[in-house]
């Protein structure tokens, strides 16, 4: 086993623990692993799976991350790609000054943001992983969605090593595109979701759905493009805008859990609809997605998952 250690320096403030929890969402996530000190994840880099182990050694105000990159074969040529992937996934260079300035003028928001100061907006590393997350969690609780994704990763994701318990990287679209949709039934996916995953994987693998072209579109145009795909509706499209394209202004208005978190936080007497969420977010300067993430942390804290 070969290993190399390198350092990343996030834009302060930064807290690895909170950022990882926004990425993993549930304690039984088998892809994004967290033991209270170290974040581990198998990544597919240059045609093979490698393991990154990330530990914060600096303070929130002066953060530094030590990263150990390991694989059965030499890994020195993977350092740059691994660093870039982690920088994107953990939002290391995202500047949240605007959010902190807005929250300073809003008592309710100030209290929420102060509790979780240092969290960065994480992103799924690839378009296919983002789409697969959206498909898995459609019309289901997040808990069930994560369980489906765990099975998907363990069944079709490339393992970091030959060890039976080795972490697996997320499946590649090139692997999924030729699968029989029925293969997903054993993992708990419906026949329709299986067909959707295969179609999406094929579209990405053959270049019909280009991540760079999607990145270049404005929000409304990106939602329309995504909704033209099989099995992708408004919730999935907005979820992808936030969690894969990094559109921090997007609070997915059809997200039932997100709406409930918002209603609970604001102590609203009546349930919100999509338009109600839009109206509320308009008053917070385009930081709806960041509020969504902070409210997720609030619920995770209430459930006792945050130390």
Commentary on this structure:
This protein is an alpha+beta fold and 307 residues long. It has 14 helices and 5 strands. Among the domains are: 92 residues, DNA-3-methyladenine glycosylase AlkA, N-terminal domain (TATA-Binding Protein), CATH 3.30.310.20; 117 residues, Hypothetical protein, domain 2 (Endonuclease III, domain 1). A hairpin with a 2-residue loop joins β3 and β4.
List the topology elements.
Blueprint: E1 2-8, H1 16-24, E2 33-34, E3 38-45, E4 48-56, E5 65-71, H2 79-89, H3 97-103, H4 107-115, H5 127-137, H6 142-156, H7 173-176, H8 191-205, H9 211-216, H10 219-227, H11 234-243, H12 256-266, H13 274-282, H14 288-302
Antiparallel strand pairs: 1-5, 2-3, 3-4, 4-5
Helix pairs in contact: 3-4, 5-6, 5-8, 5-11, 10-11, 12-14
Throw out a few tags for this protein.
single chain, 307 residues, alpha+beta, TATA-Binding Protein, Endonuclease III, domain 1, five-stranded antiparallel sheet, 5 strands
Provide a concise account of the structure shown:
The protein is α+β, with helices and mostly antiparallel strands and 307 residues long.
Mean pLDDT: 95
Instruction: Tell me the radius of gyration.
Output: 19 Å
Assigned CATH architecture of the domain at 127-243: Orthogonal Bundle
**Oligomerization state of this entry?**
single chain
Poorly predicted spans = none
Main beta sheet strand tally, sense and closure: 5 strands, antiparallel
Q: N- to C-terminal separation?
A: 32 Å
CATH superfamily of the domain at 127-243: Hypothetical protein, domain 2
Number of strands: 5
Order of helices and strands: EHEEEEHHHHHHHHHHHHH
Strand order of the largest sheet: 1-5-4-3-2
Distinct helical segment count: 14
Class per helix and strand makeup? alpha+beta
Helix content: 40-55%
Question: What is the 3D shape?
Answer: globular
What's the level 1 CATH class of the domain at 127-243?
Mainly Alpha
Q: Which band does the percent of strand residues land in?
A: 5-15%
Annotated CATH topology of the domain at 127-243: Endonuclease III, domain 1
């Amino acid at each position: 086993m070969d290993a190399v250690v390198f350092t990343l320096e996030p834009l302060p403030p930064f807290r690895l623990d909170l950022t990882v929890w926004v990425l993993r969402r549930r304690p039984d996530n088998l892809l994004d692993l967290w033991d209270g000190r170290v974040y581990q994840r198998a990544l597919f880099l240059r045609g093979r799976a490698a393991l990154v182990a990330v530990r914060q050694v600096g303070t929130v105000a002066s953060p530094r991350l030590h990263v150990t990159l390991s694989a059965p074969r030499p890994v020195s040529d993977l350092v740059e790609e691994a660093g870039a992937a982690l920088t994107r996934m953990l939002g290391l260079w995202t500047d949240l000054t605007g959010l902190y300035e807005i929250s300073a003028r809003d008592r309710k928001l100030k209290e929420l943001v102060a509790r979780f100061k240092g969290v960065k907006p994480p992103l799924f590393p690839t378009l296919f992983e983002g789409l697969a997350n959206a498909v898995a969690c459609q019309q289901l609780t997040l808990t069930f969605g994560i369980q489906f994704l765990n099975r998907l990763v363990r069944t079709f994701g490339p393992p970091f090593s030959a060890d039976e318990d080795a972490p697996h990287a997320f499946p590649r679209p090139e692997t999924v595109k030729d699968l029989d949709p029925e293969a997903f039934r054993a993992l708990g996916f419906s026949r329709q979701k299986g067909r959707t995953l295969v179609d999406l994987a094929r579209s990405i693998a053959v270049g019909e759905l280009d991540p760079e072209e999607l990145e270049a579109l404005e929000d409304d145009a990106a939602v329309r493009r995504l909704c033209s795909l099989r099995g992708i509706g408004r919730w999935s499209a907005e979820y992808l805008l936030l969690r894969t394209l990094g559109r921090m202004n997007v609070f997915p208005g059809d997200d039932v859990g997100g709406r409930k978190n918002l209603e609970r936080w604001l102590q609203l007497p009546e349930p919100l609809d999509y338009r109600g969420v839009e109206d509320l977010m308009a008053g917070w300067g385009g930081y709806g997605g960041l509020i969504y993430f902070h409210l997720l942390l609030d619920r995770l804290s209430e459930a006792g998952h945050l130390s």
